[in-house]
Amino acid sequence: MRRSYANKKLARHARRPAELLLVPMIDIFTVLVTFLLMTAVFSRTVILQLNLPASQTEFREPPPGLQIEVMVRKNLLQVADRNTGPLATLPNTAAGYNYDGLTDYLKRVKAKFPEKTDASILLEPDTTYDTVVQVMDRVRVFEVKQGLNTVQAELFPDISMGDAPAIDSTTTGATAAPAAAPAAGVPHS
C-alpha cells in the first residue's frame, strides 16, 4: 500500500521533536520586570539613631551638670538625674502612661538647660514596643501649634537606651511607690 505524499509529510513532521523558543518568553519577562519596577511603591522608612551605652572598663568621674534619665516602669514614668536621683515621678493615668505630664516636665527642664541635647531612656525588660516609641517621641520633640500649623520643637534628640535599675525594697518610697504628683521643682544648675 502506498502512502500519499501528505501522509508521509505528516508522519515526518510528527516524529521531529518540537522546538522550544525561549526568546519571546525572555522578552515578555523583561517587559514585565521593567513594568513592575517602574510601578512599585517604595515606602519611606524613618530611622532614628540610638546611642548605646559604652561598656565601661574603668571608672571615670562623670562630668558636672545634669544627666537626664527617663525610667519607664510598669506603673509610672520617672525623670531622674543620674547624679542626684529622682526629679519627677509621673504615675499612670486611667488611659495609661502620663505622656503629657512627661512632655510638660521635660519642657521645663529644657527651658532651664537649653544647651542640653542628650537623655537616657531606661526600660524594664517587659516594656512594649509602642511604649518605647511613645516615650522616645516625647523625649525627642514636642508639638507647638502656630496658627493652623503644628510645628515640632526639639527637646532632647540625642537618646541613649538601657535597662532600668531594679527596684530595691530597702530604698525610700520615691523609687518603689508612685508619688501622688510630679515634683514641682526643676533641678538647679
**Span from first to last CA?**
117 Å
Strand content: 15-25%
Largest beta-sheet characterization: 5 strands, mixed
Report Rg: 33 Å
Oligomeric state of the chains present here: single chain
Estimate the mean pLDDT confidence: 78
Count the helices. How many? Answer: 5
* Poorly predicted residue ranges: 57-63, 170-184
What can you tell me about this protein's structure?
The protein has 189 residues and is of the alpha/beta class. It folds into 2 domains: 5-39, no CATH class; 68-165. Helix content is 31%, strand content 22%. It is built from 5 helices and 7 strands; from the N terminus they run ααβββαβαβββα. The strands form 2 sheets. A 5-stranded mixed β-sheet has the order 3-2-1-4-7, with helices on one face. Strands 5-6 form a two-stranded antiparallel ribbon. Strand 5 and strand 6 form a beta hairpin. It starts with a helix and ends in a 13-residue tail after the last helix. Residues 57-63 and 170-184 have low confidence and may be disordered.
Summarize the structure.
The chain has helices spanning 5-15, 23-39, 99-112, 129-140, 173-176; strands at 68-72, 76-81, 85-91, 118-123, 141-146, 149-154, 158-163. By secondary structure, it is an alpha/beta fold.
